[in-house]
Amino acid sequence: MKNILIIGSVGQIGSELTMELRKRYGNDHVVAGFRKTQPSEELANSGPLERVDATDVERLNEVVKKYNIDTIYNLAALLSAVAEEKPQAAWNVGVNGVFNVLEVAREHNCAVFFPSSIGAFGPTTPLDNTPQDTIQRPNTMYGVTKVTGELLSDYYHKRFGVDTRGLRYPGIISNVTLPGGGTTDYAVEIFYEAIRNKKYTCPLPAGTFLDMMYMPDALDAAIDLMEADPSKLKHRNAFNVTAMSFDPEIISAEIKKHIPGFVMDYDPDPVKKAIADTWPNKMDDSCAREEWGWNPKYELEEMTKDMLEKISIKLGIEY
Ligand code: SER
């Protein structure tokens, strides 16, 4: 990775991945691609910035040529709940956009990172210890786009030799940029509400177990996978990766250890509940561990402590 383009650099993962890549590879070598949302000052002032829309293949070509890009992190996507509201837009970004990126990568010999998701599984998938290779028949538009992206990425590797690699991310917990419209967003919102109001109304019912990961591990996973020795990779798109699995009761109890007055009640969102019910309770990520050394650093306790500290500073509210 010498010259890197991030598509979706203002999103939840993109905003932090861009800064981490700039730290590791040099500011001038990491181009922050954004579409509509104005990038933060930190992003805008620390390195090159370009308007890039994955659905606009000509513009994509221009930027890749201009900066002699050899690696593309394509993070553009609509998250699961929003994708149910706007399925056509979700398909356009999540499939046509992915296709464009792969085509540009084929032409310019770029490696491509594809973020798949726990959403690539569905109601007929074994939901406990979900294997790396298993049934994938999602019934959400988000899931349909993620499975398609996995298959297209594998196809471009096999057929054209494009160096495509991907992860099936769980819910990502972070404190810089809020996620927008995902089923797992509650695991971020709960921290802000705990600090602001000592109270949170959860949109998923008790007993809904989902895989989760703290952002520092999510960043390491993406970069480590792209740096992994290709001869060791038996899989490509996309690796199961997880760091913890909990339900709302468990995370609420963990927050209570730091904020004893914290209370949580429930008002399940039917769309999010229906989506979460079809996603794994806990994935088996042993292939990622074996093939490229995946080993997350944060479990629930450390993540909770760090989230509360960081968000408290960010909001200027002590807890
Ligand atoms: N965080 C995503 C969502 O909830 C899952 O990949 O949509």
Summarize the structure.
With 319 residues, the protein is α/β, with parallel strands linked by helices.
Which of globular, elongated, flat, extended, rod-shaped describes the shape? globular
CATH superfamily of the largest domain: NAD(P)-binding Rossmann-like Domain
Distance between the termini: 42 Å
How much of the sequence lies in strands comes to 15-25%
| Rg from alpha-carbon coordinates | 19 Å
Mean pLDDT: 97
**Total strands:** 14
CATH class of the largest domain equals Alpha Beta
Indicate the CATH architecture of the largest domain.
3-Layer(aba) Sandwich
Stretches where pLDDT is under 50 for at least 5 consecutive residues are none
Query: Biggest β-sheet: count, sense, barrel?
Result: 7 strands, parallel
CATH topology of the largest domain: Rossmann fold
Q: In which range does the helix fraction lie?
A: 40-55%
Instruction: Order the strands across the largest sheet as they lie in space.
Output: 3-2-1-4-5-7-11
**How many domains comprise the coordinates?**
2
Structural class from helices and strands?
A: alpha/beta
Our count of helices gives 12
Order of helices and strands: EHEHEHEHHEEHEEHEEHEEHEHEHH
Which ligands occur here? serine
Write up what this structure looks like.
The protein has 319 residues and is α/β, with parallel strands linked by helices. The chain has 2 domains: 4-170 and 215-240, NAD(P)-binding Rossmann-like Domain (Rossmann fold); 172-211 and 244-283 and 298-315, UDP-galactose 4-epimerase, domain 1 (Alpha-Beta Complex). Helix content is 45%, strand content 17%. It has helices at 12-25, 41-46, 57-66, 80-85, 87-108, 141-160, 186-197, 215-227, 248-258, 270-277, 286-292, 300-315, and strands at residues 4-7, 30-34, 49-51, 71-74, 111-117, 128-130, 164-169, 171-173, 199-202, 210-214, 239-240, 244-246, 263-266, 282-283. The strands form 4 sheets. It has a 7-stranded parallel beta sheet, with helices on both faces. It has a 3-stranded mixed beta sheet with strand order 8-10-12. Helix 7 (186-197) packs parallel to helix 9 (248-258). The mean pLDDT is 97. It binds serine.
